[in-house]
């Protein structure tokens, strides 16, 4: 086992001993050393000259960093509801059996550990797993066996068959955004309009954020441009953690020109000279490719100083990798993470545009929003605004998965009906659609004439289809587990509320729920909505609430006849004492009251 | 010249620009419940006890600035019921055994529970497995009682300039950790005279060898008067 | 039959599960108000009456948390027969002092406590007459539906009196600040 110090020193040096990079340093240290040992913590802390607690707190916050040995091979099965529907659990258990290990516990020879993880952005080609953060989609029993063999043979990941790691785009429908552009064309177009002109076009386009919040991008850029001070930053939100969303994965893979030049255009219009791509850890497979592209852009004056020969137009881009924390998709949490802190949302006001990264005005925009900037630069805001609806201009990428014949990425003009989308993706006999991810809305067939738009059914893109045989209770329960796992823990309502919600759903799933639980769920959902610190807590109960309202029988058929059932399984609670006394007489058992 | 005012429960309350709603309310003698707020530290906004309705939207009064024409609701049945729910959640999350706690009677969590008439913690108790750290000669930490208010974190960082405490982990795994080689207080830089050792509003960080002798039952901080009646309800009782 | 109408008395049941009986002692601290109580109430199953099983009653007062199978049977019987069930005291409300064992494995406790003094071998009693302990001590409201809770360790006689009279007279039980204590 290599010692921590020289390896850590080299990594710390590479990041110029800058504590804001502690997350990057820890990622790379774990890549080399397989876990973050106490020695590694000490080395990082002393190298950065920060208290060890700052390092420990970061390690314990992010799901992909481990402070216990988890093996040379750390395998994580994605566990979104779409993965379940595709049969991930059978594959997961098969792997545990073959490797003779228990969930989350490293094998006795220290070689491998296997666990579950939140959605990894591969819903269109699941089930999927991450092997040391590298995505392996389209899992089958055969693939799982292949992976087990590779692990047992201790084959380095770089030597695993490339096809294992192939991630398809699955683009099914294009309109305007999903068309290639020649490099430099959008930058030239922006320069021709001038900084103010470019900003005016974005405002004229009335383009709203594509990450879920839908904030008018022009207003955001203008706010940053007008904020006092010389420094500004552009942050491209590529965290795409909302379950069911994978459209940014496709943009980053195949339309990176639009994304990267879009960032530079944002810098041009706002006066920012530095941009970050906060790339979720689950998309590690895109990192090298994006970095190569950034290097090429620097080489041909599309990044760096005097872009495309325009004096004063300086902009550069840096990739910052996430490490498995959905909450980092929230703008203020993302900026905290970029600063090397825990990804916990900030108090607002002030907004990011006023006080953001390192206290400077910061624009946090979604990948798709920034890509649209290239469209607006080329064709102008008025043309852009002709597409879509009056309040939702332009087109929207939908990432469609679940019970449909053609899962993948679809581009539509805003205003498309849900019915049309279902027809196009080959969804038949649909029970419900979850739009907007785990925090979105659950819609039933009577609502399929509604439209994808900010003024009707808004979404960052997630569109999960459930056929008539699906158990919507289990859909809601999957999401309840997700939120409890992803809550940042800063505020009591969400930290405790999501745990209570998940526990109640589990209780009902085990057949020990009563009508009492239904009332409790409503109370907790309502409470989280009002008192939580950020959107995670506010929306954590949406799926359960919708499922209760629209699929109540799915809950009721699991409930006791009585109004109230004990919090625990009493028979199971007596098990330890039964065992130690070796008793099996009638009094050694407790029946559920009927 | 007329004062600038905003309304709390339809009463005009004066404020100076830059004041938060909580600060302005306190100055006017109006009680807004709070737990993680202490005037000497930067407002945290985490416990959510001070949540009030500002123009119909929930905001934390400790961080939200007062503004002219604002309509703030503080004392409504719905908000009071929610405050009780919040306290209940804090109770079931840890192991809060009042009868055996040295802080009982002077504890802000308990006092808030009395204020909002919590008769039962209601939710299913989580009974987490948490430890006690008695390694330090003068200061004890009982993690069963920690409510993650981060007052000790802020005090140690901003007043004592020692950064002894931090919060690690996410969600239900979030917990207080100690900056020392062993992770315990004994080999940390904490001294009993530190602000961080005195600032805990509940019974988590306790000075040793005081026990229940701080004050007899009947004369403890909140025995006679509820927390809302305290002249300076922010005051952490004198260290024992 | 006497000429004055005999009022129907309120039927009270009480029990102490995993409790110290302090709440029952506190009930008796109502002192001479016991006479007043006796005018309007009578006791069904209770340690005070030694009636072994509960019949239909109006109010059941439960002291103590639920720590073994017998506690479960008792609290179920009281819940089935009482219109109103009140969890009285810290132990009934949140497990109290006995629940401090919850972080420990119940089998570890049993094997530590019951050992042959000569050989050190565990000798955990296994007579079918003994109720088996549950893995944890549970608050009453996690086993049956609880209607009201009266906190204290124990609640004072005054608090119990106020609470009881509120219930009997049909009022929502409220405790003045001085009567509301968790310790």
Question: How would you characterize the overall build of this protein?
Answer:
The complex is a heterotrimer of chains A (594), B (240) and C (183). Chain A has 594 residues and is α/β, with parallel strands linked by helices. In chain A, 43% of the residues lie in helices and 12% in strands. Chain A has helices at residues 4-14, 22-33, 38-48, 52-61, 81-85, 88-99, 141-152, 185-205, 217-226, 247-254, 256-270, 287-299, 331-338, 367-379, 381-385, 418-425, 472-486, 492-509, 515-531, 535-539, 542-550, 552-556, 570-573, 575-581, and strands spanning 73-78, 112-117, 129-131, 134-136, 171-173, 233-238, 274-279, 316-321, 362-366, 395-402, 408-413, 430-435, 441-443, 462-467. In chain A, a hairpin with a 5-residue loop joins strand 10 and strand 11 (408-413). The radius of gyration of chain A is 25 Å and the shape is globular. Chain B has helices spanning 21-27, 77-93, 108-115, 151-158, and strands spanning 5-8, 11-14, 51-54, 57-60, 71-73, 132-133, 139-142, 165-168, 175-178, 205-207. By secondary structure, chain C is α/β, with parallel strands linked by helices. Chain C has a five-stranded parallel beta sheet, with helices on both faces. Chains in contact: A-B, A-C, B-C. The A-C interface holds A 516, 563-564, 566-568, 570, 572-583, 585, 587-588, 590, 593 and C 69, 72, 76, 105-107, 110-111, 122, 124-126, 128, 131-136, 138, 142-145.
């Amino acid at each position: 086992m290599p010692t921590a110090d020289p390896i850590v020193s080299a990594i710390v040096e590479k990041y110029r001993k800058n504590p804001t990079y502690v997350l990057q340093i820890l990622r790379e240290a774990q890549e080399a050393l397989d876990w973050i040992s106490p020695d590694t913590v000490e080395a990082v802390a002393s190298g950065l000259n920060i208290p060890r607690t700052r390092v420990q707190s970061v390690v314990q916050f992010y799901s992909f960093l481990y402070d216990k040995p988890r093996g040379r091979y750390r395998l994580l099965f994605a566990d979104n509801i779409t993965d379940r529907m595709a049969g991930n659990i059978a594959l997961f258990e098969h792997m545990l059996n073959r490797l003779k290990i228990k969930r989350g516990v490293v094998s006795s020879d220290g070689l491998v550990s296997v666990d579950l993880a939140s959605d990894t952005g591969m819903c269109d080609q699941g089930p999927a797993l991450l092997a040391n953060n590298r995505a392996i989609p389209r899992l089958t029993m055969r693939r799982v066996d292949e992976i087990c063999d590779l692990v047992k043979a201790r084959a380095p990941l770089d030597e695993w068959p490339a096809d294992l790691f192939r991630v398809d785009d699955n683009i099914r429908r294009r309109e305007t955004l999903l068309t290639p552009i020649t490099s430099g064309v959008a930058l030239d177009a922006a320069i021709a309009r001038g900084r103010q002109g470019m900003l005016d076009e974005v405002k004229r386009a009335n383009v709203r954020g594509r990450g879920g919040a839908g904030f008018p991008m022009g207003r955001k850029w203008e706010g940053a441009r007008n904020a006092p001070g010389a420094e500004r930053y552009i942050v491209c939100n590529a965290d795409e953690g909302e379950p069911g969303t994978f459209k940014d994965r496709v943009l980053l893979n195949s339309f990176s020109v639009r994304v990267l030049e879009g960032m530079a255009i944002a810098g041009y219009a706002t006066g920012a000279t530095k941009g970050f791509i906060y790339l979720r850890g689950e998309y590690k497979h895109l990192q090298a490719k994006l970095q190569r592209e950034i290097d090429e852009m620097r080489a041909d004056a599309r990044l760096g100083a005097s872009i495309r020969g325009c004096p004063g137009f300086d902009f550069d881009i840096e990739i910052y990798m996430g490490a498995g924390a959905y909450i980092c998709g929230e703008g203020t949490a993302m900026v905290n993470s970029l600063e090397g802190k825990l990804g916990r949302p900030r108090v607002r006001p002030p907004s990011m545009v006023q006080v953001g990264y390192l206290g400077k005005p910061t624009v946090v925009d979604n990948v798709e929003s920034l890509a649209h900037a290239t469209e607006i630069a080329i064709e102008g805001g008025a043309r852009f605004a002709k597409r879509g609806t009056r309040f939702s201009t332009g087109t929207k990428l939908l990432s469609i998965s679940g019970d449909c014949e053609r899962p993948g990425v679809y581009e539509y003009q805003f205003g498309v009906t849900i019915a049309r989308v279902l027809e196009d993706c080959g969804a038949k006999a649909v029970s419900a659609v979850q739009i907007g991810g785990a925090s979105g809305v659950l819609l039933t067939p009577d609502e399929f004439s509604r439209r994808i738009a900010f003024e009707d059914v808004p979404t960052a893109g997630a569109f999960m289809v459930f056929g008539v045989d699906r158990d919507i209770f289990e859909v809601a329960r999957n999401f309840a587990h997700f939120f409890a796992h992803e809550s940042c823990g800063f505020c009591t309502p969400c930290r405790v509320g999501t745990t209570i919600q998940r526990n109640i759903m589990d209780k009902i799933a085990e057949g020990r729920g009563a009508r009492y639980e239904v009332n409790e769920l409503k109370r907790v959902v309502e409470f989280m909505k009002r008192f939580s610190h950020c959107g995670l807590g506010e929306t954590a109960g949406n799926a359960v609430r919708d499922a209760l309202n629209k699929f109540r029988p799915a809950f009721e058929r699991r409930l006791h006849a009585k109004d109230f059932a004990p919090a625990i399984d009493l028979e199971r609670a007596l098990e330890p004492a039964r065992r130690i006394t070796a008793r099996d007489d009638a009094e050694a058992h407790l029946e559920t009251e009927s | 010249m007329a004062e600038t005012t905003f309304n709390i429960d339809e009463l005009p309350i004066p404020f100076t620009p830059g004041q938060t709603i909580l600060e302005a309310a306190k100055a006017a003698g109006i009680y807004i419940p709070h737990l993680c707020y202490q005037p000497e530290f930067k407002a945290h906004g985490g416990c959510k006890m001070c949540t009030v309705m500002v123009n119909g939207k929930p905001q934390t009064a400790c961080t939200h600035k007062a503004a002219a024409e604002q309509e703030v609701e503080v004392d409504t049945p719905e908000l009071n019921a929610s405050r009780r729910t919040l306290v209940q959640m804090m109770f079931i999350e840890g192991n809060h055994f009042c009868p055996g706690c040295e802080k009982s009677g002077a504890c802000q969590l308990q006092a808030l529970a009395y204020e909002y008439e919590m008769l039962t913690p209601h939710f299913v108790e989580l009974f987490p497995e948490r430890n006690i750290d008695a390694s330090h000669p003068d200061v004890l930490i009982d993690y069963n009682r920690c409510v993650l208010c981060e007052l000790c974190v802020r005090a140690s960082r901003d007043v004592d300039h020692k950064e002894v405490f931090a919060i690690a982990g996410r969600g239900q795994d979030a917990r207080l950790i100690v900056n020392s080689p062993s992770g315990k207080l004994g080999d940390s830089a904490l001294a009993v005279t530190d602000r961080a050792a005195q600032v805990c509003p509940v019974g988590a960080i306790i000075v040793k060898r005081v026990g229940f002798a701080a004050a007899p039952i009947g004369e403890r901080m909140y025995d006679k008067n509820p927390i809302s009646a305290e002249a300076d309800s922010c005051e952490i009782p004198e260290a024992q | 039959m006497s000429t004055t109408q005999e009022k129907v008395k309120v039927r009270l049941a009480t029990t102490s599960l995993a409790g110290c009986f302090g709440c029952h002692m506190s009930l008796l601290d109502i002192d001479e108000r016991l006479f007043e109580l006796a005018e309007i109430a009578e006791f069904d199953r209770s340690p005070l009456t030694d009636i072994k099983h509960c019949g239909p009653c109006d109010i059941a007062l439960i002291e103590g948390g639920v720590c073994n199978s017998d506690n479960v049977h008792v609290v179920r019987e009281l819940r089935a027969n009482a219109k109103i069930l009140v969890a009285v005291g810290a132990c009934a409300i949140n497990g109290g002092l006995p629940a401090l064992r919850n972080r420990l494995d119940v089998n570890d406790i049993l094997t530590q406590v019951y050992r042959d003094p000569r050989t050190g071998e565990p000798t955990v009693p296994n007579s079918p007459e003994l109720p088996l302990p549950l893995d944890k001590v549970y608050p009453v409201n996690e086993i049956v539906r609880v209607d009201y809770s009266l906190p204290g360790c124990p609640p004072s006689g005054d608090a119990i009196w106020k609470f009881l009279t509120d219930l009997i007279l049909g009022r929502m039980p409220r405790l003045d600040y001085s009567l509301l204590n968790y310790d």
